[in-house]
Amino acid sequence: MDKIETTDVLVIGGGLAGERCAMEAAALGQRVTILSLVPPRRSHSCAAQGGMQAALGNCVKAAGDSTDLHFLDTVRGSDWGADQEVARIFADNAPVAVRELAHFGVPWTRVRPGRNVYHIKGQQVAIDEPAEKAGLIMHRDFGGTAKWRACYAAAGTGHAALYAIDGEVLRLGIEVRDRAEALALIHADGRCHGAVTRCLRTGQVGVILAKATVIATGGFGRIYGRYTTNATINEGTGAAIALATGVVPLGNMEAVQFHPTGLWPSGILVTEGCRGDGGYLLNREMERFMVELEPAKQELASRDVVSRHMMGQIRDGKGVDHPGGPHLWLDLRHLGEEHLTTKLREVYEICRDFLGIKPWEELIPVRPTQHYSMGGVRVNKDGEAYGMRGLYAAGEAACWDMHGFNRLGGNSLAETLVAGRIVGARVAEFAADHQIEADTGLALAFLQETELTIDAWLARTGQGPNVYDIRDAMGEIMMGKVGIFRQGDELQAAVNELRALHDSLDQAVLRCREPGANPELSFALRLKGMLRLALVAAMGALAREESRGAHSRIDFPARDDRNCLSRTLVRWGHSEDEPMFSYEPVGLLDLPPGDRGYGKASHVDMELSIEQYNDSVLTRQQEQGRLATQEPMGASLREGAWHDAEARAGLTGT
Amino acid sequence: MATESDSSRELTFEIFRFNPLDPGSEPRMQTYTLREEPYMTLFRALNRIREEQDPGLQFDFACRSAVCGSCGMMINGRPTLACKTLTSDLASTIRLHPLPAFKLIGDLSVDTGTWFREMGSRVEAWVHERQAFDPEAIEEPMDDDLAVAIYESDRCIECGCCVASCGVANTRGDFLAPAGMNRVARFMMDPRDGRSTGDWFEVVASDEGVFGCIGLMACQDVCPKELPLLEVYGYLRRRALGAAFVRKQR
Amino acid sequence: MARSPYISSAAEAVDRQSVRGRADATWPAESRRQVIYELISGLSGLALALFMWGHMFFVASILLGTRGFDWLAEALEVTYIAQPTVVIIFALFVIHAALAARKIPAQLRERRRFAHLAKELRDSERQWRNIGPDGVLKPHVESWLWIWQVRTGMIMLVLGSFHLVLIGLDIFTTLFGDRAGIEAATSMARTAGGLVWVYGVLLLCVEFHAGIGLYRLAIKWGAGARLSRTALWRVEKFLFWFFLGLGLVVLLVLAEIIPPPLGFILGS
Ligand SMILES: Cc1cc2nc3c(=O)[nH]c(=O)nc-3n(C[C@H](O)[C@H](O)[C@H](O)COP(=O)(O)OP(=O)(O)OC[C@H]3O[C@@H](n4cnc5c(N)ncnc54)[C@H](O)[C@@H]3O)c2cc1C
Ligand code: HEM
Ligand code: HEM
Ligand code: SF4
Ligand code: F3S
Ligand code: FES
Question: Whose CA is nearest to atom 1 of ligand 4?
């Protein structure tokens, strides 16, 4: 039966995380098949422009940087929601990952010796770079770190990295199937055996059985409808099929990062730099509302504060009308043509290409938008999913958990590569020790279930809601009520409305029945999963009665380390109507919870001592399904190593 | 600022329709109308047409921000990225065809992915190292000017617009085409790649390579990323010529 | 730097697989042949173009009147420059045509597709409102011009061969005129006697074809990097109009429609 194929390792997702993982497994001798919705080079990893964090400490503004400092920044940034051992593994490996990319051909921007003029917070600053660092990988300031740490390749870091990694995938002869979608995981008794797939060229379904399966499907920003900087393919199907197993939990689905200035109506990211350089925000009455609402910092207030006030303006009817929904204005006119075409060239180009305007003459329509999903398939430090042997996850799709409740800019690209290398190696070991264990009957049963779903969609006729309307309604609910600032009553309303939408899906009717992939059917098949992700994110947010990182509850403004220093886990049993929530400790604590150094400072202290907390981590995580790792818990943590790091680097602080 | 929608234009879309998987489908042009919105790009317009008027319409978008290369199509006779094409830049009748030179998947969707993957294998688009990677060592220094030059070529997003615009690529299936030649040049100028110039010649110095190019320059004119393609060809030709003579003495 | 035990070593394995036995790759004979073909077709085009400029100045001697023309023709013949030139040019003409024609799509279907695309690109300008430096898009006519390069080449192949045979007979035989050689009288007689139309077409073709050809040659070998395309285009336009203008005046004189404008110099 040619509908059933086999491979050693099945990697779902051809972004940086998936491909790096596939490479590692292939290099270790496994036969690897990569599935991707689009040709791998079109994965959303290509959109990352800013940079990739790694503590190389090459330029003057990075001098004294260390992996310890990177670890500190990452844990603080996460608002202590991260697994600190994972953050440690990450920080230690990030330099290797960056240098390895140089080896694979990424044209990193390099240190230019001698006088350099940098543009720092609107000021020109001249700095002499020493000759002995000439030609090493350069850093830029990105994402609020102690040192300049983001390595970058001009304005296309993600692009260059993805192309280099994909080149290696070509070299290793790894099989890549693009326009192929995984629709369901094949599993039995806590063991994953591969996936049911659908070809987006022909619409044909089939099965790929594998010894090990990896989910690397990226973020799920599209549950916020159009209000996201993510690509149209970031629909979270990876997390959704993991949730659909009923066994594997998703972690921290309420931890969602937003960005204040997404271009409207497209949602494309407009860099923070334009506010840093003196841009204003205006409402429909052309008022600079930030001056009134935040007199001290005005537009330079933190991302979340700015976003909150923007949403407030829109809610108060002070948004500017647009057929796609209301927006606000970003005013850069006073910065002048010269500045905009040189220092803010990317912004100028975006305005030219996507709005057809000159930003020194006209206003820019913007809105806050979703940007990054910290949550995802909950895995242990080897990348193996909770409760499911042979299933792994890496990259934005995973909750490996180095980001906790807030990701630092530039940490996610680095994560994809570090996790890809490590998880890839573990996957290869697993595959080497195991056989394909599923029988044809099991595979066919899962295939049949998918076919039945498809047939049901195609068979349903009559008057019913349209899938795109359901999606739009979901986006409105998510952005309006599960957005940047959250409140119990609104979250409750969101949960109710999402549940109604979820139920209405059974009446939804397709209008297209053409043979082939059928774009409407393809979307419909993802919609249920998307609605479920939206629902568990909203429910998780409702249940988490504190504010931590990007999760800001107006009704619970403090971070509550006494009750909530935990990770939300959610499972959705196969025939259940309701998801099931549980909580586990965030992981071993090395850096004790404290002030982030920015944002709101208030928090409720832990009741337990660090030791008491740490003692219970392993058992409580195992209770939640954590599988044994290759090395014991804590083996990679270098306790207290961060202690002197700041002093050594000449930074004041804890 | 044209925010008043009542003064907006009525756009007419003439879109190529053909579903090769549907035995009943014939290649044809189908017409749709849509009222123009402020800042409307073809990303928004095509999605609205699909969602409101014709759910079967096939086209590809992913990043919708001109970085992924998914959405190349012929727009009023010109191959370019639909996601960064504003309707306000177009006459009120908008004609859309799939990119020529690629295999048609359906309607406006073509298989650029397979084409580029084959090209990548053909030119072996990866760094052919001479040394093993040492995770302990710091990176090899590289002059930033060289890094910038490599990046300039590396920027290609594989959208296929150049291929679609090139008369040669449209008539010769084996032609490496602009993007392929650019890819070769990118690795040729990278000192980390251990290939000697001679290794390249099968691929480059032939009618399938740079000598197949007849200098039409459509590629350069349509490349949405404005890659310096003509410089690339000059570079490849000169390298080919140089190598033809240097090689003899070895 | 402190290392985590998680740093994997698979990268090593990756690299081992990558070192390929490429060092002794041999220079493929086929590719070398292609380099040579390309060189010959380019150089023959260049040589022909340069010759045509020389040729233009040669026939322009008619502007000085028949005496000037005859004097120059005789000078080139007694020094045995003219005779071999005819043979060489004829050879170059054929070689160039043969090599250049390889680039013309073989099948009618392909030529149609090519022409369709070139036309679409040429006309797209009208359906785009925003072509220009800031709208990023540039109008594109060069593909269309290539088609005309082929067409003019074809025309030249016929008319040019005819002309070369005529001139060959003139130089090597006594069929025309009083002696074996080019004479103003015979030239003018046959031009006025009807060849004026042939020469007119030929002239237009030559100038168009050579102008675009040189421009393309410069672009192909990378002159476009140093001189911008717009600058090259301006140079090519100037050359085209200059030689076309000069050629037309010469043609009018040859056809005895106007008297030699510079005839007074030699006093004829
Ligand atoms: C605009 C923007 C800018 C950013 N800038 C930065 C930055 O400067 N620095 C930084 O560190 N991070 C940045 N990020 C975040 C970073 O880009 C992503 O987190 C990271 O690239 C995710 O990589 P990934 O490999 O996990 O997933 P992706 O690159 O999103 O890849 C997902 C892959 O999964 C495939 N896939 C999905 N579902 C399925 C399915 N069901 N079946 C088969 N295949 C499937 C897709 O086709 C795709 O190949 C940015 C993000 C955005 C949106
Ligand atoms: C006999 C008839 C001729 C034919 C059929 C012919 C055909 C062609 C063709 C098809 C090309 C394009 C080749 C390519 O782009 O690689 C070309 C190029 C060229 N031709 Fe001709 N041609 C002819 C005569 C001439 C003459 C008489 C001249 C000189 C005046 C000339 C000068 C050139 C030049 C300079 C080029 C550019 C060469 C290049 O790009 O490599 N050709 N010719
Ligand atoms: C060595 C070779 C050549 C010689 C000696 C030569 C000689 C002449 C002479 C004597 C004339 C005057 C008219 C006549 O006597 O009929 C003439 C005119 C002309 N020749 Fe040639 N010719 C040569 C090659 C070519 C070639 C290859 C072309 C183009 C393909 C060409 C194109 C023309 C044209 C267009 C005219 C008309 C003059 C004008 O109007 O400017 N000739 N040539
Ligand atoms: S060279 Fe330009 S047009 Fe061609 S594929 Fe690359 S980006 Fe697209
Ligand atoms: S369009 Fe084609 S012919 Fe050459 S200059 Fe560009 S590759
Ligand atoms: S959708 Fe990515 S380039 Fe247009």
Answer: B179
